[in-house]
Amino acid sequence: MIKLILGYLKGRARACAILAPLMMILEVVMDLQQPILMSRIIDSGVAKGDLAYVLSTGLVMLAMAALGLVGGASCSLLAAEAAVPMAGAMRQGLFEKVQGLSFADLDALGTSSLITRLTNDVIQMQGMVLMMLRIMVRTPITLVGSIVMAVIISPKLSFVFCLSLPLAVLGIAWVLAKSVPVFGLVQGSVGRVNGMRRENLLGARVIKAVTIEGRQAERFELAIGDLTQRRIRAQSLTFLLLPAVTFALNASVLAVLLFGR
Hints:
The protein is built from ten helices and no strands. It has helices at residues 2-8, 12-46, 51-99, 103-109, 111-133, 135-153, 160-202, 204-209, 213-238, 241-259.
């Protein structure tokens, strides 16, 4: 899969795909410096009544936050510059491939399926590349960096991560295991809706001639209703990710407050 995607990242798009993770690393590094600087303000500034140290360290924090903002914004821009041309090249490649298929292959794949692959599936691939260049780069770096920073700031309380991380990972794994099959059903429903849409457009004259507009409308409403229900079910499962992660984070905060007194 990665090799296939890289084949469509060419020229400027490939350069942007390389630079985007570097900008995300810059943002994560700047974010990870904030807790250390804040602890220094409290321990060396507030505790000792050194206002000058508090102000100088606060300015450093603002500068790092601004630099992190630049890195995050640059990552988003570069990721889009990489993903959009990639999707265009992929759609062009798929179109050329479809033109070379035999009639038997076209009948086996189905017109509605090919339309879905050329439109919705390519958009999904574009969104996946955007996530890979942003979230999938940020998450592991933030995870490792947070653990390192926690150990540096307070080795005693760093064991909290050993308790909260398994909870978060188990919650995410459960949601993914339940939602991935449902998203597969959603893709099938999208293909059926596209197929019916094509039939209604190409056969508009025949439908009017035999006066079956009502029946076609009912069929389309049923297909749309099925797609809607499956999308709601899939999104409902993914919405469980935030509560699961939030629960793990709040449990970590409670543990820190309990053992850090």
